[in-house]
Amino acid sequence: MDFRKNMKHRKLVIIPTYNECENIADMIQAVMALEGNFELLIIDDASPDGTAVLVRDHQNQFSDRLHLLERKGKLGLGTAYISGFKWALSKGFDYIFEMDADFSHDPKDLIRLYQACAHEGFDLAIGSRYITGVNVVNWPIGRVLMSYFASVYVKFITGLPIKDSTAGFKCYHRSVLEGIVLDNIRFIGYAFQIEMKFTAWKLGFKITEVPIIFTDRTKGTSKMSKGIFKEAVLGVIWMKIKSIFSPYKLNQSESIEWDSPLK
């Protein structure tokens, strides 16, 4: 199918930020320059470095396609995405993307993820570091091993048939996010990424992995912590137990309400 025939699809890229002033301006320009009229939602957790100020400055240039939600503090990756998902659904977007601000994810790969869903019929496309080996640049070997074997661990415990279960570069068709009871998503760090994939899989959505090259950030500071890793390890066990005693069911609500994070 010709990519241009799908220009009518509304596409929103969600990027949570905390202290990303060194990257955010370049990322905005990169996403705005893509073919396909992508829109961008930045969710900033009161970054003290002025990230939100830079976003507002760029809204003068991209007033119809660049959006900003400002939250009152550092509330976690998972809650940022849940707020973004609800906002996207309430605004009628067809395809919703998760992406990091630091260029570890190549903005050009957004088109490949979109094509996997819009052209090939998948409900969720994951930008995978491990589908064709280990495609990671500039990571220390310890972190590569930790990330790779985390996915092995997830598959062993849960049966989730995904090689990169902690990946944070994704494209959802809106039906996935409508089908998940978003308020029931429990985790906020890496376990959030696993829980969203596991839930989509349990609900029967079609999932694919698209090979990407992941390049570690060259600017700014990583948000990884021991607490986030611990949450993922224990969270996987909790998800498996929950799935046994409480089978996953599609959301039966007729609509998704977006609650302002500023309330």
From TrEMBL:
InterPro entries: DPM1-like, Glyco_trans_2-like, Nucleotide-diphossugar_trans. GO terms for molecular function: dolichyl-phosphate beta-D-mannosyltransferase activity. Belongs to the glycosyltransferase 2 family. Residues 13-178 form the Glycosyltransferase 2-like domain. This is Dolichol-phosphate mannosyltransferase. The keyword Zinc does not apply. GO terms for biological process: glycolipid biosynthetic process. Pfam families: Glycos_transf_2 (PF00535). It comes from Algoriphagus faecimaris. GO terms for cellular component: membrane. Gene3D superfamilies: Spore Coat Polysaccharide Biosynthesis Protein SpsA, Chain A. The keyword Glycosyltransferase applies. PANTHER family: DOLICHOL-PHOSPHATE MANNOSYLTRANSFERASE SUBUNIT 1. Keywords: Glycosyltransferase, Transferase.
